[in-house]
Write a structure and sequence with these properties.
Oligomer: single chain
Helix content: under 10%
Order of helices and strands: EEEEEEHEE
Number of strands: 8
Structural class: mainly beta
Largest sheet: 5 strands, parallel
CATH superfamily of the largest domain: Ribonuclease Inhibitor
Strand content: 15-25%
CATH topology of the largest domain: Leucine-rich repeat, LRR (right-handed beta-alpha superhelix)
Radius of gyration: 18 Å
Distance between the termini: 50 Å
Number of domains: 2
CATH architecture of the largest domain: Alpha-Beta Horseshoe
Strand order of the largest sheet: 1-2-3-4-5
């Protein structure tokens, strides 16, 4: 990133389709709000602790892990679809997260427990297709949500019969 290292006020950086293999040396971009890295060859998330970043896209890369997002506490949107992510992790510190795009949930064949609480999901209508890759292990789907007309409603689904 040496070519743009002097652009300290940069707020949006689009580096999609550049055949990048690594992303590093972002620590000087303290005002960066959006980082678009889709269609590269990135294997590891290394955001150098960008605490102000709000939107990031790693779509269509070579990621196998979500590790590396933990320090980006301002994140509101993360796009990670079309990667090889095997485990949902590193999201507990991202309290501002509103959008998480991961279409590879079908590849999570070890998924045993899917918790979707504290979000805006009002229906589990298409959940069977989404978790089809984990039918062997999946025992619990948990959804809790607030409704304007009702108090909190909880739904727990457990089916160990395969």
């Amino acid at each position: 990133m040496e070519e743009i290292d002097h652009l300290h006020e940069l707020q949006i950086l689009e580096l999609g389709s550049n055949r990048l293999r690594v992303i590093e040396n972002l620590q000087n971009f303290i005002n960066l709000q959006e980082l678009w890295l889709g269609r590269n060859r990135i294997k590891v998330i290394n955001l150098c602790g960008l605490k102000c970043i709000k939107k990031i896209s790693f779509q269509s890369n070579r990621l196998t892990s979500m590790t590396g997002l933990e320090e980006c506490v301002a994140l509101e949107e993360i796009y990670l679809s079309h990667n090889g992510i095997a485990k949902m992790e590193g999201l507990s510190t991202l309290v501002n997260l509103g959008v998480l795009a991961v279409n590879d949930i079908q590849n999570l064949t070890r998924l045993e427990d899917l918790r979707l609480n504290d979000n805006q999901i009002e229906s589990l209508e298409n959940i069977a297709e989404a978790v089809s890759g984990s039918r062997e292990k999946l025992t619990t789907i948990y959804q809790g949500f607030k409704s304007r007309s009702r108090l909190r409603r909880y739904v727990a689904v457990s089916d160990k019969s395969g």
